[in-house]
Amino acid sequence: MAVTKGEQVRRRLLTAAAELIGERGWSAVSTRILAEHAGVSASVVHYHFPSIQAVLSEAAVTAMREVLETSQQVFAVATSPADGVDALLASVDQYSGTDPMSRLFVETYLAAGRDPELRDRIAGLVTAFRTQITDWLAAHQVADPAASAAILAAAVDGLLLHRSLGPLDDQVGAVLRRVVIPCE
Amino acid sequence: MAVTKGEQVRRRLLTAAAELIGERGWSAVSTRILAEHAGVSASVVHYHFPSIQAVLSEAAVTAMREVLETSQQVFAVATSPADGVDALLASVDQYSGTDPMSRLFVETYLAAGRDPELRDRIAGLVTAFRTQITDWLAAHQVADPAASAAILAAAVDGLLLHRSLGPLDDQVGAVLRRVVIPCE
DNA sequence: GTTCGACCTGTACGATCGCCCTGATTCTAG
DNA sequence: CTAGAATCAGGGCGATCGTACAGGTCGAAC
């Protein structure tokens, strides 16, 4: 069989960990909670992973990579810079700011500040995402593509953060489109 | 005496809590760690506060209110929308993204998602801050002042989040200035 | 000088934490 | 069919958690 039984359990642990990071917070995910949520015994966690931090890190990096990769694909179909911003915001719209995935992103940013190895992996993911946007903006004659991409990426995370506190203005899309202006 | 001995200890606990939230993370601040950091015995915490969550919430709200109030004062001296954005970014520049205050903001956003009462208090602070910026932008004939203020506030938090992963592009200030365009 | 309240210390309780170890079970190669 | 590897359950260890409580110290009011 291609996927062994143990590999299935390992994946269940990772998906459960990703959910729990968002729901309970990074440092509130314990071995027993994680095991119960994945439907296994507590000691199975330490059979598949060396430590709790290792599970959380791998789960977070995997989940973030998937989201970022699908998120940067929305730019491929956009035909103009304004379309690209709209598509980016639309793809973000499925996250309410209070859902596990949104919170996993922020939790992981914070955890990365306390774990240098995790920090490097996350920085790599975000840099790759930002580079992808930079290239796309440059190809569409946007001025200062690198800084514009940095603002767009930061705005997305910031909007998620603020949206968890309450609804946002309808016109944020129109305003964010101002960021991408053509070269003179 | 105006400030009693007990009040001094209470304040030491609050400032220590604010630091520890940023350094260790919200849910990793324990009674004993907090007491040790404030130079008091462990049970003093529960003499001045009903629970650990209460200390953390009050410390976070107090710290955030101070920062937001001083931060919105930088707009008062700015004479143009572009100046305002520059002043905002400059006032944010003193926070590296890895310092306790930056991290306290994000930690508190996340904690607010798990505590409705804290959420309301934080939402009030952020809304007041955003309203202040909105009024200032409107007074300076910026189009869509409310949405522009939302983008600016979100960008500030997002930039802090991303700056903790690595240095940012030099031109983010120039790009962010594009957000504030005059009414047609 | 005594009383009283504010303030603090030390200790204790039950719960939970990460991690380890020992056996049982299940699967697979030979 | 069997031996061995892979996988899992259960229990236990020392540490730490939040909180409660009983007693001690100390300054101020009377």
From TrEMBL, chains A, B:
Q: Where are the transmembrane segments?
A: none
The record's section on Gene3D superfamilies has: Tetracycline Repressor, domain 2
Which InterPro entries does UniProt cross-reference here? Homeodomain-like_sf, HTH-type_TetR-like_transc_reg, HTH_TetR, Tet_transcr_reg_TetR-rel_C_sf, TetR_C_31
DNA-binding span(s) = 30-49
PROSITE patterns this protein is in? HTH_TETR_2
Q: Where is the HTH tetR-type domain?
A: 7-67
A single Pfam family, by name? TetR_C_31
Task: Alphabetically list the UniProt keywords.
Answer: DNA-binding
Q: Which SUPFAM superfamilies match?
A: Homeodomain-like, Tetracyclin repressor-like, C-terminal domain
Report which residue ranges the record marks as coiled coil.
none
Q: What is the protein named?
A: AcrR family transcriptional regulator
Q: Which organism is it from?
A: Kribbella sandramycini
